[in-house]
């Protein structure tokens, strides 16, 4: 199979659309006690899933407010972000 520039660019564009469609988005909300999903928490804290669970096990981060699916209060995550900014 031969790839020319046009077919390669078309493949890249198609792939980027699929990847971008799967990226989690942080829901824009003004409520400070809204619940965030795991993907949103990871994006806000800029950490990996394994790092989050390691911090939970070490007691640095509280476990999820609700289970199945895991959810954290936005106000709590905001307070963690504030603590990291001060350090």
Explain how this protein is built.
- The protein is mainly alpha-helical and 87 residues long.
- The chain has four helices and two strands, in the order αβααβα.
- A two-stranded antiparallel sheet has the order 1-2.
- The longest helix is centred in the N-terminal third of the chain and has 18 residues.
- It is elongated and about 55 Å long.
- It starts with a helix and ends with a helix.
List the helices and strands and how they pair.
Layout: H1 5-22, E1 35-37, H2 38-45, H3 49-58, E2 71-73, H4 74-86
In the sheet with the most strands, the strands line up as 1-2
Report the structural category. Answer: mainly alpha
- Residue runs with pLDDT of under 50 for 5 or more positions: none
Give the overall average pLDDT: 80
How much of the sequence is in beta strands? 5-15%
Order of helices and strands: HEHHEH
Our count of helices gives 4
Residue share in helices?
Answer: 55-70%
Number of strands: 2
| Termini Cα gap | 54 Å
Largest sheet: 2 strands, antiparallel
Q: Give the overall shape, derived from the CA principal axes.
A: elongated
* Oligomeric state of the chains present here: single chain
The radius of gyration over CA amounts to 18 Å
List keywords for this structure.
single chain, 87 residues, mainly alpha, two-stranded antiparallel ribbon, 4 helices, 2 strands
């Amino acid at each position: 199979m031969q790839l020319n520039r046009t077919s390669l660019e078309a493949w890249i564009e198609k792939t980027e659309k699929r990847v971008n469609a799967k990226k989690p988005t942080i829901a824009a909300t003004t409520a400070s006690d809204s619940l965030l999903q795991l993907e949103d928490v990871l994006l806000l804290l800029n950490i990996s899933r394994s790092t989050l669970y390691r911090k939970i096990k070490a007691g640095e981060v509280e476990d999820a407010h609700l289970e199945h699916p895991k959810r954290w209060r936005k106000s709590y995550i905001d307070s963690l972000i504030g603590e990291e900014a001060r350090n």
